[in-house]
Amino acid sequence: WQDQYATVFGGINFMEFKKSKNIIHSLKIDSSTILELESNLILCDTCSKHNSSNIHDDQKRQLKSTKNIEKLVKKNVELTYEIRNSLLKNELSKIGEYLNVAWGYKRKFSNKISNKRLDKIYNTAIKYGCTGGKLLGAGGGGFFLFYCNPVNRENVCKHLIKLKTKIVSFNFDKNGLSSWSVRNIL
Questions:
Q1: CB–CB of 26/13 below 8 Å?
Q2: How far apart are CA 114 and CA 33, in angstroms?
Q3: 37 or 53: which leads in pLDDT
Q4: pTM
């Protein structure tokens, strides 16, 4: 759901999904902090195809069969509060560390989330200067989001591209979804 909510609301938000309701908290972050965050993040398309449905199904099976996974889910949720607090305090250097921890948790949800190619991409980013990162979405492919000091960015990107990935430029959207009606002009 977070993908759809992020698209609709725009901005930097903290989202809480509960059984009875979902709560979206708009985070008031200084525009200079957002610009710094954008310059510290690398969005990397792994160019790897994946079947998110199979990964989600495997995660559901793991959740039902392993009590340790429930603890990981709880730790992962707690980590989101740490990330929120770091953003609000403008402590951006911690974001990479938190992404690294989140990636470690995510990998334990299913053995289908990562593979040798994805591990190589991740390890290369860390080797050349990223402090952390996380595969977005279900896993198995798609996009990594890495946190990197801008001084190391060019070198990291150069090595990631050698692994046949694509670096994708992005900016945070402040407004979210906009809609309009076409006037009937006759």
A1: yes
A2: 31
A3: 37
A4: 0.86
